[in-house]
Amino acid sequence: MQSRARRLVIAYLVVLAAVNLCVYNYANLYALLHPASDIRLNLYGDPQIEGDAKISREPRIGKYDILFNDYYLHHIYESTIAAFRPHYVVTMGDIFSCQWISKEEYYRRIHRFKWISHQVDSKNRSLSSNHIYYHIAGNHDIGYGEETEPYHINRYTNNFGPLSREWLSRIGDSTHRFAILNAMNLDKTRRIQYRQQAWQFVHQLVAERRERPDIPLILFSHIPLHKHAGACVASPSIKYHRGFVVYQDYLSPATSAYLLHCLAPTFVLSGHDHNGCQAAHSVKTSASQAIPLGMTDKSLRSSEDLCSLTLDEIDEFQAEIEEFARQTVMPATGFDDVGTSAWDTLEVTVRSAMGEFGGAAGVFDIRATDHSRQLSPQRHARTFGRIVAARANGYEYQYREVLLGNHLGIRVLLVVDLVSCLVVPAVLLLLKL
Predict the structure, then answer these.
(1) Rounded to whole angstroms, how far apart are CA atoms 393 and 180?
(2) By three-state DSSP, how is residue 239 classified?
(3) Under a CB-based contact definition with an 8 Å cutoff, are residues 221 and 183 in contact?
(4) 368, 361 in Cβ contact below 8 A?
(5) Counting CB atoms within 10 angstroms of each CB, which of 49, 118, 181, 429 has the fewest?
(6) What DSSP element (H or E) covers 140?
(7) d(CA 101, CA 106)
(8) What sign does the dihedral 19-20-23-29 (CA atoms) show?
(9) Which residues of the chain register pLDDT less than 70?
């Protein structure tokens, strides 16, 4: 009887150890089958780390929840960075849970986030790395258009860098352009200077695209492009207060149409929708008929007409641009079993890294195919579970979603580990007596 009980206890410990090894090394195991690439990005959606407000609301469990979440998010960043060795690490916005926090609390959260994202160690010493960090401003970092204040902008840019930025990366024998948009101020913004700055950057990108249309563009935006209901979990909804945005699931149809027509990105990587989403956008360069722009002598017939509009004209002719979009931008669709070749821009909304959504990290790879210059420009894309694989203009793109586990399952495992550490030695001791 005692011998059998010992065997059961040992078997239990072996299974428990195996479960722990799999959970804590899942990213390394997943990475074993991950293909090689020329450029790799690790993407982390909406961590939304909390602080004093949660402790005030839930004094008994608030501190425990924050401690657990910090360590779990740290595990997500650290393990996936070590496993996939990216060139770039991008947090897709909503770093914090609320932009309305005091200066002191803000800097406490910055220190926590830098540790969480594996930029500093527990003693706040910078860690050496072979990758570059980029951060995208979300609505919980600087607010929607109606909420954005100078101190939101200043403290964000002082600590995380410009709201809009771009860089070039050599891939194979050519180059890719990567650009981060300040999506929070693209639509109606109370402080006009921030919206003008956001659009000035967009117009700069448009000019660069005209000069070098051969360079593929990868676009980052916290808020996804407009989609019809049913394309993703989120629904198309924008709310205004005094004419300025106080809430939006997607960018407005007019702004989305402008970005698709005038920037023609190969991929758009976005955040905001915690559930994640994949969609394909198809764009025609001309409408079936010219759309007059009010009482002016201008009209919308082609992409070039739309791209020549100023910001004031984009605001003035919203209805006309939306009609142009209805004629030229096909409703965003998902992917079927055989894939889709009728696309101009693919969009991946990165699932939230929060434990409630499975502790997700996105891995985005770009690889130049052999003889890319001679390949046809045909585009093709399909999904395999949580993988999006695409081919365009001699390059292969792949996005993989890595889920490290729901926070409830991890909490249960921690409790089981703790109880086992206390109970199993006592059981073994009793079996010897």
Answers:
(1) 22
(2) strand
(3) yes
(4) no
(5) 429
(6) helix 139-142
(7) 6
(8) negative
(9) 1-2, 335-338, 370-377, 433
Give the per-residue pLDDT at 123.
86
Angle (deg, nearest 10), helices 2-24 and 407-432: 150
pLDDT in the model for residue 339 = 72
Distance (Å, whole) CA 92 – CA 135:
6
pTM for the model? 0.94
**CB–CB of 375/369 below 8 Å?**
yes
The domains located in the chain, with CATH, are 37-406 (3.60.21)
Q: Which of 260, 295, 301, 293 is nearest to 279 (CA)?
A: 260
User: What is residue 97's predicted lDDT score, i.e. its pLDDT?
Assistant: 95
Q: Measure the CA dihedral 50/87/358/116, to 10°.
A: -30
**The pair of three-digit structure tokens given for residue 310, joined into one six-digit string:** 């100023």
Please classify residue 367 by burial: count the beta carbons closer than 10 Å to its beta carbon, then call 0-12 exposed, 13-18 middle and 19+ buried. middle
Burial of 183 (0-12, 13-18, 19+ CB in 10 A): buried
**What are the DSSP calls for 324-372, one per residue?**
HHHHHEEEEE---TT-B---SEEEEEPPB-SGGGT-EEEEEEEEEPTTG
Query: How many angstroms separate the CA atoms of 171 and 187, rounded?
Result: 33
Which residue reads 């109370």 in tokens?
A: 190
Structure tokens at 124: 């706040």
* Structure token digits, residue 13: 């410990």
What amino acid is encoded at 14 in this protein?
V
HSE-up (13 A, CA, CB side) for residue 155: 19
CA–CA distances in Å: residue 254 to residues 123, 235, 344 = 47, 17, 18
Token pair for residue 227?
């989609």
The answer to whether 256 touches 225, Cβ cutoff 8 Å, is yes
Dihedral sign (CA 121, 54, 146, 322): positive
Separation between Cα atoms, residue 282 and residue 264, nearest integer Å: 10
DSSP summary character for residue 265: -
**Counting Cβ atoms within 10 Å, is residue 78 exposed (0-12), middle (13-18) or buried (19+)?**
middle
